[in-house]
Prior knowledge:
By secondary structure, this protein is α+β, with helices and mostly antiparallel strands. The chain contains 1 helix and 9 strands; from the N terminus they run H-E-E-E-E-E-E-E-E-E. The strands form 2 sheets. Strands 1, 2, 3, 4, 5, 6 and 9 form a 7-stranded antiparallel β-sheet that branches. Strands 7-8 form a two-stranded antiparallel ribbon.
Amino acid sequence: MSLKILRTGKNTFAWLKKSSPTGFTLVEIIIATSILAFLMITLHRVFLVSSSAWKKGDARIRMYQNGRVSLDVMSREIRCALISPGSSQLAFKGDEDVLSYISTFGKAGQSGESDLAEVGYSLSSKGELLRRIKTHLDSSFGGGGATAVLASNILELSFSYDNEGVWLDRWDSSMGTDDSTKDDYLPQAV
């Protein structure tokens, strides 16, 4: 038995060498993978920064909305404030950081009468806007009652009181003289 090898000339192993490449070399694959990884990392960072900015903006919007709602509630309730000239129990008293006054509270009954309550606003050390409501009026003005949080994450709260164009840091509707009740009145604006 004999084995014959056919020689075809110089191109004996021509099937190993192709004239047109159909694949990629290892270097080309590594470079393409590196570029793709760089792009993916960059896109991931852009997504994280965008997501963080979105969350901060959303938190800021909620904070402003809470502030607006709280100011609206306070404004409506302060407009209902009333005093009784010469009475220290039906008064409107406020400092720069605390406000207490007497207001109508609750819905009017069938006879059109409403209950009176002492309402107060202050800022807690935790940054919470507190509303205090005391439905039983007594001689201890400015204390007691039930306290609820109107808003949180409040950085600053300050009150000022308009007295005919002059803004004051304090107000006390009972600060007038005992013999005259003409100087017992509400501020024009808070």
